[in-house]
Amino acid sequence: MKKVVNNKAWFLVLPVVVLVAFSAIIPLMTVVNYSVQDIFDVNNAYFVGAEWYRDILQNPRLQDSLVRQFIFSFFVLLIEIPLGIAVALMMPTKGARASLCLILLAIPLLIPLNVVGTIWQVFGRTDIGLFGWTLTHLGMDYNYASNPIDAWFTVLLMDVWHWTSLVALLCYSGLRAIPDVYYQAASIDRASGWAIFRYIQLPKLQSVLVIGVLLRFMDSFMIYTEPFVLTGGGPGNSTTFLSQTLTQMAIGQFDVGPAAAFSLIYFLIVLLVSWLFFTTISHMDKAK
Amino acid sequence: MNKQTKKNVGISVYLFFVLLPIYWLLNMSFKSNEEILGALTLWPESFTFDNYAVIFTDPTWYMGYVNSMTYVMMNMAITLVVALPAAYAFSRYRFIGDKHLFFWLLTNRMAPPAVFLLPFFQLYSSVGLFDTHLAVALAHCLFSVPLAVWILEGFMSGVPREIDETAYIDGYSFHKFFIKIFIPMIGSGIGVTAFFTFMFSWVELLLARTLTSVEAKPIAAIMTRTSGATGIDWGVLAAAGVLTIIPGLLVVWFVRNHVAKGFALGRV
Amino acid sequence: MAEIHLKKLAHSYSANPKFTSEYAIREMDHVWEQGGAYALLGPSGCGKSTLLNIISGLLSPSEGEVLFDGERVNDLTPSQRNIAQVFQFPVIYDSMTVFDNLAFPLRNMKVPESKVKKKVFEIAEILELQDVLHNKAKNLSADEKQKVSMGRGLVRDDVSAILFDEPLTVIDPHLKWKLRRKLKQIHEQFNITMVYVTHDQLEAATFADKIALMYDGNIVQFGTPRELFEKPNHTFVGYFIGSPGMNFIEVARCAGGVEFAGITFPVDAGIQDILDQVPTDNLKLGIRPEFVHVCAESIEGSFECDIKHIEDLGTYKIITLDLKGRTLKARIDEDQQIPEHKVYVSFPKQWLKLYVDEYLIEGDSE
């Protein structure tokens, strides 16, 4: 659509700018300020330059949780994106059954994050949880509280349970936006089910998938509450991800300076990776 | 087995996977602690409402729900009021710095909440908003406003300009046109935006817990206190969890007809 | 290559239709001969797209049979029927190049790649798509996209018929005639049965050898464009074909023929016989504006008319006349001079048609 040049439109965006400036810029400036100072109390602060950044980048705790974080987000995308597409493809296309499916799928998305953690904490327990109990009675040595692999498995399963619906809903609406004639033409062209998926459905899903991948990357990379409730980051530090490491540092130990430097690096990583995803996907489209 | 049957089996299996953990929570909420900790039972042997009674009779419990609902509603109201005109501006006009502004708004969605924990705490304490519903509502705006502007802009771009121009020619003022004509036209978009705003604000705990202590404490934070001297009160915990799912269900029920259309028409 | 026979075909979208109004297609028998170029013409909502989809197999008829060369194909899918169909909005596979789009049906049939290549180049040449063969199909203009969707039907050797569902809707006006000529050329070259759905009479007349005019779920007339123009056998055909449509005047029986406002029109003996047999009073006389004879002076058998309105359309004029309270249109040449207020019209007998219950009746004498 052609847009008209009109600088008065600034008045329309002004409320948003003021609001977001209040809740983003001021706090962000505070963080930047902290990240370059060593603060003992209100009257005793020393400028330390990039020292906290150096410290943080060399901090093994942070490096470990960064690696864990990337592995976690990688698996989240690897499982949830294909599974979400598959679920969307399997959903009924119209009628009351489609509405019912939509509602049921959306439920996990609307449960408070700590309740999600609680649900799986209970569900996975070997004594009172159906899931853990079943695995144990099938003869598996499963305990998410003591075995790191089991803990990872449970955290991932929980995230898949929690968020695959979002990908599925996005894809479902993308699929509904494909006009029937495309399927009719494909049937006339004798396209196989796979060819229909590959050449009609997948290309039309591209734009919703970009959003799905970005949202899932960002949110999985910032995950805090669910694993915190489920495993508390353990056993050991095996399921301690970036947000939890940061929170421990900022609130637990009150290391304000390093925590602030950590915050900014964290933010930058999310921005950078999101930007990379976005440009790669949009370039892939143009390149051909 | 034909294709359609396979699909039906597949989706049923997935929905079973989605519902089973929720069923387990529901199941537990109707059991007494003795039964929960005793032998594993697939449904409550001695069905009881006691756990729910605890929540509905204790103000420290039920006020948690009131607090959560209050700040979520405030957040939805603020978000829609500021995002609607902004999205309109982005969808209709070009102005100095528009693209940068739009992108900057979106970057806020990428900020980890943990990053803002400490500065938010200090900011809202210093302006005297700490432990108020407004503090949480404003904090959540940081994530809900960019998303709302983005979704609404997608919907508004789908409405032809000619509609605006015709309305102005017919003598409508901007306000009248916006409220009487334009907003009803993007009903689905507003429905989906409300859904997402609710979703992120209702489920969020980290910021909500940090910015409150007593007066505005969200239900999710109160739930972390079910462990007492005698161990965790599983029944009450489960009942409280079940009650947090209900508002979400109501919201999906209301927007169910917009979801399929809404997700596709706008950008999200 | 096939002859398409629709036998006692009817279709309703409701499960248990009780009234004829519930039928999108009323019961019909119809044959499309092998190699013909046909148009299925009618206003929107008359059932022409439904009929097309029944032929192609996208829709299964609720009653009757579809026969291809005498064989029942009701239960066959579009691909099993070897039908190609071009839709109103061009359907192309966005992510593929033009070449891959054209090769798609062949590759789906596991045709060897060397043959695919040969065939695609051949068709691309006919459709003048050689220059864009390796471009992404997504970036083509609407008419090129429509050519690509047509091409996907043409690459297959085994296609028994190509069906077109208003294929020129989204094409720019100045490109329409070009594509139409291309279609005509392809029809001559390939000798394939083609059925072309449209609501545009000009499009139908330029493309098709024979037009089936549909109205309210029925094929009301099937004939050459000339037949439809000169001898519409239903009042609707008269209205719909021609611009402006046929004049119809309600008339009543009288001794020796029909009359209105005191003017008597004698009818042939054959027609009189039919008139005597039917009880209905729904009688109409019809004449095309082109055939109304207009002159400045009164001549034998002419009637005086008031001129209500003259519309000058460049190469000809449409005059709206008042003949004893009935409105009548006539088409006259641009250079014919007529008086300002009054003219005299006469109706040549061979162009004056009588319609009983909306259907044309003809005497045996002709």
TrEMBL record, chain A:
InterPro entries: MetI-like, MetI-like_sf, Sugar_ABC_transporter. Residues 66-277 form the ABC transmembrane type-1 domain. Its main location: membrane. Pfam families: BPD_transp_1. Keywords: Membrane, Transmembrane, Transmembrane helix, Transport. It is a multi-pass membrane protein. Belongs to the binding-protein-dependent transport system permease family. GO terms for biological process: transmembrane transport. GO terms for cellular component: plasma membrane. It is found in: Cell membrane. The chain crosses the membrane at residues 12-36, 70-90, 102-123, 151-175, 196-218, 259-278. This is Carbohydrate ABC transporter membrane protein 1, CUT1 family. CDD domains: TM_PBP2 (cd06261). It comes from Neptunomonas antarctica.
UniProtKB/TrEMBL annotation, chain B:
Its main location: membrane. CDD domains: TM_PBP2. It holds the Pfam family BPD_transp_1. GO terms for cellular component: plasma membrane. It is a multi-pass membrane protein. It is found in: Cell membrane. The chain crosses the membrane at residues 9-26, 69-90, 102-121, 133-156, 177-203, 234-255. It comes from the Bacteria. Keywords: Cell membrane, Membrane, Transmembrane, Transmembrane helix, Transport. GO terms for biological process: transmembrane transport. Residues 65-255 form the ABC transmembrane type-1 domain. Belongs to the binding-protein-dependent transport system permease family. MalFG subfamily. This is Carbohydrate ABC transporter membrane protein 2, CUT1 family.
From TrEMBL, chain C:
It comes from the Bacteria. GO terms for cellular component: ATP-binding cassette (ABC) transporter complex, substrate-binding subunit-containing. PROSITE patterns: ABC_TRANSPORTER_2 (PS50893). Residues 4-241 form the ABC transporter domain. Gene3D superfamilies: 2.40.50.100, Nucleic acid-binding proteins, P-loop containing nucleotide triphosphate hydrolases. SUPFAM superfamilies: MOP-like, P-loop containing nucleoside triphosphate hydrolases. Pfam families: ABC_tran, OB_MalK. Keywords: ATP-binding, Cell membrane, Membrane, Nucleotide-binding, Transport. GO terms for molecular function: ABC-type ferric iron transporter activity; ATP binding; ATP hydrolysis activity. PANTHER family: ABC TRANSPORTER ATP-BINDING PROTEIN, MALTODEXTRIN IMPORT ATP-BINDING PROTEIN MSMX. This is Carbohydrate ABC transporter ATP-binding protein, CUT1 family. It comes from Neptunomonas antarctica. The lineage of its organism: Bacteria, Pseudomonadati, Pseudomonadota, Gammaproteobacteria, Oceanospirillales.
